[in-house]
Design a protein that fits this description.
The chain has 468 residues and is an alpha/beta fold. It contains 17 helices and ten strands. It has a single domain, classed as Spore Coat Polysaccharide Biosynthesis Protein SpsA, Chain A. The chain is globular, with a radius of gyration of 23 Å.
Length: 468
């Protein structure tokens, strides 16, 4: 689809109100000079010692040695297993060392900042229950009121979403623009429509089933104000319906670790791999430089209709800009309450993860930016070796059940202890005993969700949204 053809979808809208140079590859690690959190370091050492003690106590290492020596085939399996394990544990150490040095950027009391104008773009499909609260949270933020505009796009909703948008426009006047699609055209086209109607120097994406914290806008925009080399900033996604049931409580732990650990250490060297659609800030000029490429993205000759947030992040990274994470820019969002819905969400996410991993691999060895190019490559390797290692080790553990049934029982006990100790991280950051829900989530991930990656790989061209 050509650029001029892309704009044709706007006929469905009804506006309710008016060449890189090659440079020597260097490793730059200035962040290693940052002071670490002593308590975090202590908890990491405590957890590591506890896991090692437990492994020795229940003879995990001894069982593996005896098991892998039992047949010729298993002896051959020892080598890839050891190599993968060494890479993975090295990756854990690597990421942890960097993570303890992460600090979110914040404004000093009384500091004078020339805040840029901000446009919050909110595509919505059948979100009548939460859309009003989402809009209110934006205008109730502590960002300068005269520098905020909101563009809501009703993407062919069949419920009362449009009515709630129009009520909000009556409440907030010209600061809120409403666009109505007569039929569903997809999130990418909805976002593009909102982008064309917006005027802010900074463009924010926000999901309409979410609610932001009062200081979220200031905190997420700050790196863009202070760092010209930063192209976009990810916010921290927390669970809005955390206490609804066991699954939502477990997902709250998963989200916390994914953001306050995963994106935090990646932010230190400016290469967050995925900025969430729930809350991310972009430089408008940068966004406009590749918006049509993103809008018309194809993979394996199929149009891409999901994973729009990860695709945007990949394009920002490819442009040579830093991608940061602000843990103090908080947004609360609803998560699935049923296992089937969660599985479909993970399947959609994993398809886009695999797609964007392939795209990132195409340029990650090139001089696409001036510094911090080595660490994203190492992280990419560590992250992507986890999946085959998980499947390989799980297959070995299941097979071992026929040789020694107690083997798998010991492994489950070991996993429970490891999950408990590693979840102390959540206790450190959130000060809540909810960290205990990390234990059943670890078991679920290990023994129930193993199929997500292989199925996603086999169905990567499937572009259905699944959860809509």
């Amino acid at each position: 689809m050509k650029h001029e053809e892309v704009d044709q979808f706007l006929e469905y809208t009804g506006e309710a109100s008016s060449s890189r140079s090659r440079k020597k590859l260097t490793i730059d690690l200035p962040f290693l000079k940052v002071t670490s959190d002593p308590l975090a370091v202590f908890l990491i050492l405590l957890a590591s010692a506890g896991i090692l003690y437990m492994a020795v106590k229940i003879e995990i290492f001894q069982f593996w040695a005896e098991f892998l020596r039992s047949t010729t085939l298993l002896r051959l399996a020892t080598y890839p297993l050891i190599v993968s394990a060494v890479i993975i544990f090295s990756g854990i150490i690597f990421r942890t060392i960097i993570w303890v040095r992460y600090r979110p950027m914040s404004a000093a009391p009384g500091e004078k900042i020339d805040w840029p104008t901000v446009s919050v773009i909110m595509p919505a499909l059948n979100e009548e229950k939460l859309i009003s609260r989402s809009i209110d949270s934006i205008f109730e933020s502590d960002y300068p009121a005269g520098k905020i505009e909101v563009v809501c796009i009703n993407d062919g909703s069949t419920d009362g979403t449009l009515g709630h948008m129009l009520q909000a426009r009556e409440k907030y006047g010209k600061r809120l623009t409403v666009i109505d699609f007569k039929k569903n055209l997809g999130k990418r086209k909805a976002f593009y429509s909102g982008l064309k109607k917006s005027t802010g120097e900074v463009v924010l994406t926000m999901d309409t089933d979410s609610k932001i914290g009062r200081s979220a806008l200031r905190n997420i925009v700050l790196p863009l104000v202070r760092e010209p080399e930063t192209g976009c900033v990810a916010g921290r996604v927390a669970v809005l319906n955390e206490k609804e049931n066991l699954l939502t409580r477990m997902l709250a732990i998963r989200y916390a670790i994914s953001f306050d650990f995963g994106r935090a250490y990646q932010s230190v060297y400016g290469a967050v791999f995925c900025c969430p659609g729930a809350l991310t800030a972009y430089r408008r000029k940068l966004l406009m430089s590749f918006i049509h490429e993103w809008l018309n993205q194809r993979f394996l000759n199929a149009p891409c209709r999901h994973g729009e947030d990860r695709a945007l992040t990949t394009l920002v990274l490819r442009s040579g800009h830093m991608v940061r994470y602000q843990s103090n820019a908080l947004v609360y969002t609803r998560v699935p309450t049923r296992v089937g819905e969660m599985n479909r969400m993970y399947l959609r996410w994993t398809r886009s993860y695999l797609r964007e991993s392939v795209i990132f691999a195409r340029f990650m060895f090139l001089p696409y930016r001036k510094k911090h190019r080595v660490l994203p490559v190492l992280d990419f390797i560590f992250l992507n070796i986890l999946h085959p290692f998980h499947l390989f080790s799980l297959a070995l553990i299941v097979y071992s059940f026929y040789i020694s049934p107690l083997f798998i029982v010991r492994h489950m006990a070991f996993l429970v202890v490891a999950a408990f100790l590693l979840s102390l991280y959540y206790l450190r950051t959130q000060r809540s005993v909810a960290f205990l829900y990390g234990i059943p989530y670890a078991l679920m991930t290990a023994f129930i969700l193993w199929w997500i990656v292989p199925v996603a790989a086999l169905t990567i061209k499937n572009q259905s949204w699944l959860t809509r």
